[in-house]
Design a protein that fits this description.
This protein is of the alpha/beta class. Helices cover 27% and strands 16% of the residues. The chain has helices at residues 50-55, 57-63, 98-110, 129-137, 198-213, 238-241, 259-271, 287-294, 306-309, 314-331, 347-350, 361-370, 380-395, 425-429, 472-476, 482-496, and strands at residues 6-11, 17-22, 30-34, 67-70, 114-119, 149-151, 173-175, 180-183, 218-221, 278-281, 301-304, 336-338, 400-404, 503-504, 511-516, 520-525, 531-532, 536-541, 549-550, 554-560. The chain binds 1-deoxynojirimycin (NOJ).
Amino acid sequence: MRHTRWVTTTIDQDHQARTAVSTDLWRTAVVYQIYPRSFADSNGDGIGDLPGITSRVPYLRSLGVDAVWLSPFYPSALADGGYDVDDHRNVDPRLGTLGDFDAMISALHGADIKVIVDIVPNHTSNRHPWFREALTAGRGAPQRDRYLFRNGLGLRGEQPPNDWESMFGGSAWAPAGDGQWYFHCFAAEQPDLNWENDEVREDFRRTVRFWADRGVDGFRIDVAHGLRKDLSEPYLPWDEIADIMRPDGSHPLWDRDDVHEIYADWRRIFDSYDPPRFAVGEASVHPARRARYASADSLGQAFNFAMQDADWRPEDYREVINSGVADMINFASTTSWLLGCHDTPRVATRYGLPLEEDRPAQQVARDWLLADGATPRLDRALGERRARAAIMILLALPGSAYIYQGEELGLQEVADLPREVLEDPMASRTTKEKGRDGCRVPLPWSADGPSYGFGQHVGHLPQPEWFAAYAVDVQEADPGSMLNLYRRALALRRELFVSDDLHWVESESSVLHFARPGGVRCITNFGPAPVALPVGEILLSSGQLDQSRLPSDTTVWMRAR
Ligand code: NOJ
């Protein structure tokens, strides 16, 4: 792990950044997200596993990442890709054992790669012993108080308590069978926990300590903004609360002020370790409220989803960068940038679909998925060119960077998965979405084999034939591949961006141009025609230059003279 100096960035009206020093290595870390069930399958059962990850440590090392974040690998019926956890302190037997976990972490640490695990505190699975107990214990039993049970409406409670909807579509309530209903923000197989219950609090303290004691360096907190809820009556109608982004903590379900009490408590645990354990919150909140999660007495970092949501337009990128940098100044925190994750259509696909004025790229991609990729036409080459340019912007920014597995291969979303193989509950709970399986298809490691090197057998989601062209071994042999671009960019980032100065350089409106420490420039041409570059040394380019001009949809890092 590199020990870079971190510099708090300030920005004035000219967007001129200034700095003050800190030494927290997490603030600039590049973190690679592994979705374990789709990464590498060591035993041929079609499901990626922990020994599979261990076998690929050399690959992660050669990529040049500082840390990996593992999406859940806990025992689970996979009602929501493992985010329905049966036991927060164990490994799903299909993915290995705690011994395999120890071997994996020691191999990663041996390669100087830190490990972040996912903590899922908003809900358990419906197979969790607590939930089974709650169902059998019956109305009024203390076992029900660990969850959010309420009486149904109607003579026998046959109607849900209110009209609130789950994030995956359909009612947010499921019947207990005795006139009571339990609340679930996500799938019915994911009953929400009651964070006012002391046993719940104590159990998660144990979970955090359990993994920290096993050598885990940090935690990604799932649905960090959702733990505290106000389910008191009278309930507001759903159409008044369907928009979850509020600037003032007044939503009954999301981003309530008292959620930070939980993280202040965990912070004491994190800081009781040497070195202190790291945490990053998945907090989809109003931008003005994000920094609370990133503050030193709460989680310390929070994902900034703005770039993942941005369209491929210079003004969108400028705005996203300005607001991320402003967060760093205002809250003495860092920004955690990302272009994609296991919940979003792949970046190369989002940027290969037509840009629309009134529908964001995310939505265009979701609607395209619903049409099984039939319409509108996807321009893969364009999407890949833009994805190359975009990652170079992201890696040139101050802050930390998250890379979702397969982005380094330029993988496209798989749009034509047959309905019967879909695993995501979104696909079955709503007709408006095809779900997130298209970015969770097992990785291609080699151009041949039953699952392109993923394992000895076909994977749990079918890989399309075109995956062969994206395989790791194909890209390793091609100096111009996406994989080799990532490797060069990650290596150069360590060398070049050792402090966090950033200032904008005046340029035409279709060009994004900022300067970083030592005069290094990051320049992107979003326009259709090539543009002139300043005189200087090109350090890295996302595509071929056009006689020393910067072509459309291309980024360079250069040192201007
Ligand atoms: C956020 C995770 O990223 C997503 O995959 C999951 O479905 C929900 N949280 C519920 O745990």
